[in-house]
Amino acid sequence: MTAAALFHIACHCRDCQYVAGGSPNLTMVFPADALEVTAGEPRVFRASEASGGSYFCGTCGVHVFSRPDKNRHMVAVKVGSLDDASDFKVQADMWMVSAPPWHRPHEDALQFEQNPPG
C-alpha cells in the first residue's frame, strides 16, 4: 500500500460472511491507486453484482482485496492478508441488517444497516 488507510470496516453482508467463514469480513479501505500488487496476477470472483469483485491469490487462494463496482476509487484490503495489521480497529460496522444474532457491533464503531452513505 502506498497510502494510509481511509477507514477500517467490518462488513456483515452475506457475501462477506461466506468469504470470512461466517464472521464479519474485516477490511482496511484505501484509495484504489494506493494498491500495488507486487507478485502475480490476482484472480477475481464475483458473488453478486452488488458486491463487486473479490480478488484472491491464484496460487494459494487467499482473499486479498475487494473492489466495489459502484465505488471504483476505493479498494478494501482484507486485514488477514496484511503482514502487519496491528493498528486495525473497526471504525464502522456495515450491513448489520444481514448480521446473525451472534455478530455483535464493535464498541465505539459507527453502525450502518447497509452501505455507509456516500
Description of the structure:
Strands 3-4-5-6-2-1-7-8 form an eight-stranded mixed β-sheet. It is mostly beta strands. The chain contains one helix and eight strands, in the order βαβββββββ. The longest helix is centred in the N-terminal third of the chain and has 6 residues, at 14-19. The model has no long low-confidence stretch (mean pLDDT 86). The chain has one helix at residues 14-19, and strands at residues 7-11, 25-31, 43-45, 53-56, 63-67, 74-78, 92-94, 110-111. It has one domain (7-111): glutathione-dependent formaldehyde- activating enzyme (gfa) (Alpha-Beta Complex), CATH 3.90.1590.10. It is globular and about 40 Å long. A hairpin with a 7-residue loop joins β3 (43-45) and β4. Pfam families: GFA (PF04828). InterPro entries: CENP-V/GFA, Mss4-like_sf. This is CENP-V/GFA domain-containing protein.
